[in-house]
Design a protein that fits this description.
With about 150 residues, the protein is mainly alpha-helical. It has helices at about 20-35, 45-55, 60-85, 90-100, 115-125, 130-135, and strands spanning about 85-90, 100-105, 110. Helix 1 packs across helix 3 (about 60-85) and helix 3 crosses helix 5 (about 115-125).
């Protein structure tokens, strides 16, 4: 059983469950849409495009929160696999700051909020790029890390 954490985030697992959560989301999304979400850095451009498509329909955020969480989990998993990060549960102060219950800690100790970055893309548009977020990410491992 996956531990669920956070108020209003009853669908989101804790750090130990995020890899499975992301994989389940990718499986569900790619079966219907044949999107090439392959955990590559290049695929983060697709995350930007999917979020842009969601914005065009101008839905209430609550209607698409599950999709945004899934895209955020996917983004975080790309960081974990490609940049050497690891999923962590946020403490109370970090939860308040990031408005999320989990994030990614980099090899240099910095903590990043990929779930929040996807939400920012939805709310602000192209000013907030998920792919650019990765490319400018501080604290990445020197060599690309791939954890399948």
């Amino acid at each position: 059983m996956v531990e669920r954490v956070g108020e209003g985030e009853s669908q989101l697992p804790g750090a130990t469950g995020m890899r499975g959560y992301a994989a389940e989301f990718v499986e569900q999304l790619t079966v219907r849409n044949r999107l090439p979400l392959d955990y590559s850095v290049a695929s983060l451009r697709l995350v930007d495009l999917v979020v842009d498509g969601l914005r065009r329909n101008a839905p209430e955020r609550a209607q698409i929160d599950a999709v945004l969480r899934g895209l955020g989990a996917y983004t975080g998993e790309v960081i974990v696999r490609r940049a050497g990060g690891r999923w962590v549960d946020f403490g109370d102060e970090q939860r308040e700051l990031f408005r999320q219950s989990v994030g990614v800690r980099m090899p240099d100790g910095r903590v990043w909020n990929p779930l929040g970055k996807v939400v920012n893309r939805f709310e602000a548009g192209s000013e907030e790029s998920v792919q650019r977020f990765y490319l400018l990410l501080h604290g990445r491992a020197r060599k690309a890390v791939c954890q399948a």
